[in-house]
């Protein structure tokens, strides 16, 4: 009989485990449960518009009406880096962690202005 003792690396955010340190470091950088990877855009921002493929229903891209550009999440950045497929990231902006359009507890700048001038 033989036994092996190996080092196991665990993610600090989701408890996923890997046997190789570089693989775990890469996972932790893009982990979906990491607080630094949660963008304000994905928490109900009205400026975010998502486009889906009509045939398959798959998400194609996000568009931010505040920045007037396509945006992508940190998770998609990790997926593109891992698979090597471009995914049009060169034409989009990374979603901000703290969005400028959420002002003083209001959901969007547009609502803030409507509240002030009504």
Brief account:
By secondary structure, the chain is of the alpha+beta class.
Task: Draw up the topology in text.
Blueprint (H helix, E strand, L loop, with lengths): L8 E2 L6 E2 L2 H10 L17 E5 L6 E6 L4 E4 L1 H10 L9 E2 L14 H9 L1
Parallel strand pairs: 5-6
Antiparallel strand pairs: 1-2, 3-4, 4-5
Helix pairs in contact: 1-2
Task: Describe, in plain words, how this protein is organized in 3D.
This protein is an alpha+beta fold and 118 residues long. It has 2 domains: 34 residues, no CATH class; 80 residues, no CATH class. Helix content is 25%, strand content 18%. Strands 3-4-5-6 form a 4-stranded mixed beta sheet. Strands 1-2 form a two-stranded antiparallel ribbon. Strand 5, helix 2 and strand 6 form a beta-alpha-beta unit. It is elongated. The C terminus is likely disordered.
| Overall mean confidence score, pLDDT | 76
Strand content range: 15-25%
Unreliable residue runs: 103-118
The tally of structural domains comes to 2
**Number of DSSP helices?**
3
* Neighbour order of strands in the largest sheet: 3-4-5-6
* Main sheet: strands, sense, barrel: 4 strands, mixed
Secondary structure: number of strands? 6
Radius of gyration: 19 Å
**Outline type:** elongated
What separation lies between the terminal Cα atoms?
A: 80 Å
Question: What is the ordering of alpha helices and beta strands?
Answer: EEHEEEHEH
- Helix fraction, binned, reads 10-25%
What structural class should be given to the helix and strand makeup?
Answer: alpha+beta
């Amino acid at each position: 009989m033989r036994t092996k003792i190996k080092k196991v690396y665990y993610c600090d955010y989701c408890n996923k485990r890997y046997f190789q340190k570089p693989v775990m470091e890469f996972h932790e950088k893009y982990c979906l449960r990491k607080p630094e990877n949660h963008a304000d855009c994905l928490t109900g921002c009205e400026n975010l518009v998502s486009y889906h493929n009509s045939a398959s229903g798959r998400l194609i891209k996000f568009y931010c009406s505040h920045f007037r550009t396509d945006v992508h999440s940190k998770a998609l950045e990790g997926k593109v880096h891992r698979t090597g497929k471009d995914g049009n990231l060169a034409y989009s902006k990374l979603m901000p962690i703290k969005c400028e359009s959420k002002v003083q507890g209001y959901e969007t700048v547009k609502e803030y202005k409507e509240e002030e001038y009504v």
